[in-house]
Write a structure and sequence with these properties.
heterodimer, A: alpha/beta, 3-stranded antiparallel sheet, 12 helices, disordered N terminus, B: alpha/beta, Rossmann fold, 7-stranded mixed sheet, 7 helices, globular
Chain lengths: 280, 311
């Protein structure tokens, strides 16, 4: 007993070990939004939403339908203008500027060069009647590439990285399966090596085995390219597989946030508890 | 003190050059606007002329607006002065405006044309008026004209490049024959009316003024003199004019000019100059007459007159 207590005392007398704060806390966030508000008539889609995304991090956004997830993503993709708030991206020419006040030309340039998006519905993100490789090449053309062979090579490279079967690169997305359409969207999104990748329910609507393959590709891409990603999903399985941190939204508000395992294993907010228990 | 009647002309039951003064005033203002913003499509109130829409009413309205008694007018249709449409329009203009007419490109001040630019170089002070069926270059890739207007405003031409990309992927070359899209003054993509690719370089840094007018679509646009007009092309897949295949005109022996193919009964074909006014002059010179023939855009060896554009 005495030895034990002596041991304790010696430990206590030693200076406390300086723990390094988690990596995330050291780095500057690559994306930062503050107090976003958005309403459609009487419906409040976003209410005081604030969040950060750190380099190489995957942030999951979960919530039921109508919780404001998709609105948040559209605002982050600068497709929609919120009523108030700030939006910053830590990308050189735009650092320190509130992106919500950009002019439409700047907004378009930013979206094309630095933000990639994959929609749940491929019709929103792809030109269904053009070739798949053309869909990817269009991004590069808009960014100013005027060499046909460079476009072709870049489109092929990007499609390869997203594990799209190259033999079908000149088929229009209309003729492709859902999983392949998502891969084309992904190839298009990463064609210009964006700083930020937004995924809106990327695997909803795919059958389970295809879903697993697409998730696999996403994980590998994230590891290889180190893109910061924001994944919106109502599927907790997807969130658990992909994301490091998670925020839970309800009625346009962030009700809980934290490390994925922490939130999903030990939910604090009653709504999150309900959500986690609802998963079979 | 002079009487009012001495200051005005006698009462007439029609206005000069068919269109009423208010209509011509509107058109002149729209033409000035079009010249001020090269390649930009200016909407205008297309008036009725005694011709069906789609037969060159846009071009005719511009010609009637600009024509004056001292002008000399030439009208061509697919290069020919003597086709029914061209002859009718020419006769109509002469009748309502009292202007002289000609088939000689060098002598005309106003040249209304459908689908061709003459082989002889147009000079400073001449005005080329092209009839346009479809003024919107983005129509093939974007069906909504409201959406096209936004794309033009943003100079968002990714779709146009995408269509070129896909033509090369599918056919190994750009398959557009007529109305090849061009970039005017580095800003607007323009449909140069359905002129063949052969004629497109003639618009680049041209000495003459070009006005393009679509009567049915109610829009006109212009290329001022000495403006850059560059066909869309990839750096490594250059723009190509039509290959005339070494054929020569069977009547004049002229080569390296735009030719019409005339199928023969025995299955073979003969070729003839598409520009009939130029062909006529060549024939007259061969018959021993002294004829003034201007310098052509393409020389006898097929070289273009300036080397800025064609590679």
């Amino acid at each position: 007993m005495t030895t034990f207590s002596a041991d304790f005392s010696t430990r206590a007398s030693q200076p406390p070990i300086q723990l390094e704060p988690p990596r995330l806390e050291i780095a500057q966030p690559i994306l930062e939004v503050r107090d976003l508000n958005k309403s459609y008539g009487s419906v409040r889609a976003l209410e005081e939403v604030s969040l950060e995304l750190y380099p190489r991090e995957v942030l999951g956004v979960v919530g039921e339908s109508g919780s404001g997830k998709s609105t948040l993503l559209r605002v982050l993709n600068l497709e929609e203008q919120p009523e108030g708030g700030e939006y910053h991206l830590g990308i050189p020419p735009y650092e320190g500027r509130n992106l919500l006040q950009l002019e439409r030309f700047e907004r378009r340039a930013l979206r094309v060069k630095h933000i990639g998006i994959v929609y749940q519905n491929p019709h929103l993100g792809l030109r269904m009647n053009n070739t798949s490789s053309g869909n990817v090449a269009e991004r590069l053309v808009i960014a100013g590439e005027r060499r046909f062979h460079a476009l072709r090579a870049a489109a092929r490279g990007s499609l390869e990285v997203s594990e799209f079967p190259i033999s079908r690169m000149d088929d229009p997305p209309r003729k492709l399966s859902g999983g392949m359409q998502q891969r084309v969207q992904l190839a298009k999104a990463i064609a210009l090596k964006p700083a930020l990748l937004l995924l809106d329910e990327p695997t909803t609507g795919l059958d389970v085995s295809v879903q697993a393959l697409v998730l696999d590709t996403l994980r590998r891409l994230q590891r290889d390219l180190g893109i910061a990603m924001l994944v919106v999903s109502h599927d907790l399985g997807v969130i658990r597989t992909l994301s490091d941190r998670v925020v839970v939204m309800r009625h346009g508000r962030v009700v809980e946030s934290g490390l994925t395992d922490q939130v999903l294993e030990d939910p604090q907010h009653p709504y999150t508890q309900q959500l986690v228990h609802a998963k079979l | 003190m002079s009487r009012l009647s001495e200051l005005t002309h006698d009462w007439q039951d029609h206005s000069y050059a068919f269109l009423d003064e208010a209509s011509k005033r509107e058109l002149r203002r729209k033409i000035l606007k079009a010249i001020a913003i090269p390649g930009y499509q200016v909407p205008y109130a297309s008036r009725e002329v005694p011709m069906a829409r789609g037969w060159g009413t846009g071009g005719l309205q511009v010609t009637l607006t600009l024509v004056a008694p001292h002008d000399t007018v030439k009208v061509i249709d697919q290069g020919a002065d003597d086709s029914v449409n061209a002859a009718n329009i020419r006769r109509f203009i002469a009748r309502v405006a009292g202007a002289a007419t000609t088939t000689d490109t060098l002598r005309c001040t106003l040249l209304q044309s459908r689908h061709r630019i003459p082989e002889e170089r147009l000079l400073e002070g001449q005005i080329l008026i092209l009839q346009v069926p479809e003024p919107e270059p983005l129509r093939g890739v974007e069906t909504s004209s409201a959406a096209s207007a936004v794309l033009h405003a943003d100079a968002d031409y990714g779709l146009m490049w995408l269509s070129l990309y896909e033509q090369i992927v599918r056919h190994r070359r750009v398959i557009l024959g007529a109305s090849y899209p061009v970039m005017v003054g580095g800003r607007y993509i323009m449909a140069p009316s359905p002129i063949p690719r052969w004629d497109v370089p003639m618009l680049h840094q041209a000495a003459h003024l070009t006005i393009l007018s679509a009567g049915r679509e109610k829009r006109l646009y212009a290329v001022p003199p000495y403006t850059d007009v560059r066909p869309l092309e990839f750096d490594d897949v250059p723009f190509r004019i039509e290959d005339q295949g070494g054929e020569v005109c069977y009547r004049t022996g002229a080569g390296h000019k735009f030719l019409n193919e005339l199928p023969q009964d025995d299955g073979s074909s003969r070729f003839e100059l598409s520009d009939s006014g130029y062909g006529e002059k060549l024939l007259r010179r061969q018959a021993g007459e002294t004829v003034e023939i201007g310098a052509t855009y393409y020389d006898e060896r097929g070289g273009f007159y300036h080397d800025d554009l064609l590679r």
